[in-house]
UniProtKB/TrEMBL annotation:
Domain Aminotransferase class V: 45-219
Keywords, sorted A to Z: Aminotransferase, Pyridoxal phosphate, Transferase
Cofactor(s) demanded: pyridoxal 5'-phosphate
The protein's name: 2-aminoethylphosphonate--pyruvate transaminase
Listed transmembrane segments: none
Matching InterPro entries: Aminotrans_V_dom (IPR000192), PyrdxlP-dep_Trfase (IPR015424), PyrdxlP-dep_Trfase_major (IPR015421)
PANTHER family found in the cross-reference section: 2-AMINOETHYLPHOSPHONATE--PYRUVATE TRANSAMINASE
GO molecular function, one term: transaminase activity
Amino acid sequence: MPQSASETGDWFLLTPGPLTTSRSVKAAMLHDWGSRDANFVAINKSVLAQLRDIANGGDEFVTVPVQGSGTFAVEAMLTSLVPRDGKVLVLINGAYGLRAKRILDIAGRKTVVHQTAEDAPPDLKKIESILKRTPSITHVFAVHCETTSGILNPVSQIGELATRYGKRFLIDSMSAFGAIPLDARALHADAITASSNKCIEGVPGLGFVICRRAALEASQGNATTLVLDLHRSMVELREDRPVPLHAADACNRRAASGA
């Protein structure tokens, strides 16, 4: 086997994602599940709890799965948790900050933008200045690790500023979650979003939003779509609605096996 190949003989994918998956992840995908089977429902609950625990969410947080790519999860987070009359400070230093701005524009949410070069982190002094002079801002959005450049943004300091000025904090951790420590409670974040096919080494198909329960409870009526309404999804999860978490199940089985 060439050195450039994985354990299954595939080339290593050195792309932003999806990434190369291990033999154990591929093997876990070979099982067919009955979507309303009790074991499958139990797996759903276990996977969602494990994802919450990675973010040190505790009982005040809940993981809501979103069927689709990471962008589906980001859009669900922004359009569900930001009220229709809300205003978001969007921190942009790459394509995914720009994408969040576009999502908010299409959804009719007001935005304020702080943009820096792709090789530069947000300017904390300028962020504080914006928050001081724009009291109508309700939320701050930041990308944890900007996929296009790999730059790691200072989410801890950004979270401190958001908390100091009474703003809700939303994080896209797509390219960092599971690899770089992230503490939802210490950050005072309302939500963190990521997906199955990057640092947690699963396959594509599942996004998820780790939400503060209080913020989720207050979000009823905010959403502009049916399938990306996190509040509706939370209610259905309480009713043990089965969710096809095939992508996360692969990760779950791999973790359980110690691989």
